Please model this.
Amino acid sequence: MPVLHDIDPVALHLPVWPHAIHWYGLMYLLAFATAWWLGSRRAAAGRLPGVNEQAFGDLLFWGMLGVILGGRLGYVFFYAFDEFLADPLFALKINQGGMSFHGGLLGVMAAVAWWSRQVKLHVFDTLDFVAPLVPAGLGFGRIGNYIGGELWGKTTDAGWGVIFPRALPEDMARMPMERLRELHASGALDPFARHPSQLYQAALEGLAMFAILFWYSRKPRPRYALSGLFALLYGVFRIAVEFVRVPDEGIGYLYGTEWITRGMVLSLPLVAVGLGLLWLSRRAPTLQPEPVAAPAAS
Model:
């Protein structure tokens, strides 16, 4: 029997604060906290030579800034450019939602390039270090999408389908949750069940990519290899899920088709870049870990 999505997107209502704390925001905090914990351990093990915990903290700060600015600007320019043209302040309305992975990726790459130049490291040595830290955050983000009842999939007869109230016909979407529960119990909502594509992406982009990249990075790999594997896996997984995911509102399918989406088009270059980086890694040098020196005693 399909599941009725009945989750409050607000994690905590604060009467003394103008804005409630949403689960999606908490997922971002979990993503950054996980990246900090994993990255600190890897930095302490010397996986990025010459970089201590303080330097890694700087890298994480700039990476977080790149995710937020790049993710928002990517959403505006890739998915909502018409709204931006009508109201340029739309770019600042983060409370209305809208973040793009591809924009966030470009933002992180720009931040990593700037930081690497400051510390005199090859940018791809840094990107290879960062790559295994990202999938956990992607997984948390997709769980946040699911809790928020957004970015759902196409309708399905599968027993694990989910009925998202916001995806129901307008007359039903306005009904109180108590009435929707009654309709769900009677089976009247079964035809509206959809693929929980957010959870598919959490499993692939989050769990699977995390397991693969951390396993592959257990020992030093040639430059470009981890970045290439990250790009290839994300591109393939994202394209696969796009087949059962509803295309973005206001964009729909592209090129007169019923299956090509904006997400596919943006992910195809990642597949090509990933394959290219893996090919380059065959003759690239391998960065060897250097234990971080203990601070001198005072």
